[in-house]
Amino acid sequence: MTTKRGATIIGWGKALPSKIVTNGDLERIVDTSDEWITTRTGIKERRVASPEQAASDLALDAAQAALKRANINAEELDLIIVATVTPDMAFPATACLLQHRLGAQNASAFDLEAGCSGFLYGLTIGCQFVQNGTYNHVLIVGVDILSRITNWQDRNTCVLFGDGAAAVILGPCESGQGILSTYLGSDGSGGSHLYLPAGGSRRPLDQLALEQGLQYIHMNGPEVFKFAVRIMGEAAAEVLKRADLKLEDVTYLIPHQANQRIIDAAARRLHLPTERVLVNLDRYGNMSSASIPVALAEAADDGRFQPGDVLVLVGFGAGLTWGAAVLKWDQV
Ligand code: UT7
């Protein structure tokens, strides 16, 4: 892929609710155990938003941190993309609410829904605009407040999810630097494996839907698991091929954080040792579109990346969807 100029991450930030819910707390709500959750998923605790915290609140904190790190003003943003399945409301877009609260009056703004792959879809779209010269600064936020669509009586799902947000800002760089390749895919035939039945035009939220719990996440865990293990390996291999790189070139894999067993299986398929795989699901659970950017922002803040490091981001989610990106880190 030859472009006139490149696109790179010039700023990043994250925002996590302060409330921690441990596996022990969940033992008191549903028939589960710390032992089951830890061995089957790797999750120990997760963050849960306070009742007054909505997606745009976490997005605002993450975006402001990213602007500060990028050392630019909100007016310099040309485009805002918010990837989420839990927007403040169906419309207007959470990205527009965020645009207003940031004072980013020169930015266009839209929401993007690609399940847990949303951040990678947003990164790919933002990258095109920067590479082709249409825009100089694109803000991409991955935010989800899954606690609002979680059935806290369903042990199959309530132990898995957490709330959080993270943002990156893309800016121009030399061609061949920054984001080296991206890869997106979807398979709508798997839509029924992970979905929210009610609240849309197919099944508006009425009393019966509420009584049947159709306002909550419905998931076929084992089917999503099988798909995830296969697609993580395939997508990482494909995106590396597109960047003309090999597995040996990878400094860190930043996978979607859904289950430690999925991450381990993908790492095994890619022959990557565990120290080259970034994991935070033990502390945050699965934060959907926020999982990958939170892991990225955290590692960047901790100074784990050196200029020249090759990062592979890879994720999967409802849709079914998947996405991957290779980037060469160039921040000091
Ligand atoms: O971002 C994408 C979103 N989702 C995912 O990536 C999820 C992918 N799937 C998974 O991570 C796993 O399939 C789960 C963690 C959801 C489930 O693990 P599993 O090893 O596939 O378990 P299972 O669904 O086959 O259930 C095994 C047993 C069942 O009991 P029986 O029927 O064998 O008696 C479940 O009822 O484990 C039981 N179980 C639990 N037990 C204690 C399910 N959830 C729990 C729980 N505590 N929280």
Primary descriptors:
binds oxa(dethia)-CoA, five-stranded mixed β-sheet, Peroxisomal Thiolase, Chain A, domain 1, 33% helix, four-stranded mixed β-sheet, 332 residues, alpha/beta, 11 helices, single chain
Explain how this protein is built.
- The protein contains eleven helices and 13 strands.
- With 332 residues, the chain is α/β, with parallel strands linked by helices.
- It has a five-stranded mixed β-sheet, sandwiched between helices. A four-stranded mixed β-sheet has the order 8-13-12-11, sandwiched between helices. A two-stranded antiparallel ribbon has the order 2-3.
- The model has no long low-confidence stretch (mean pLDDT 97).
- The longest helix is centred in the last third of the chain and has 22 residues, at 221-242.
- It is globular.
- Bound molecules: oxa(dethia)-CoA.
- Oxa(dethia)-CoA is lined by residues 32, 36-37, 40-41, 116, 155-156, 159, 194, 219, 221-222, 224-225, 228, 258-259, 286, 317.
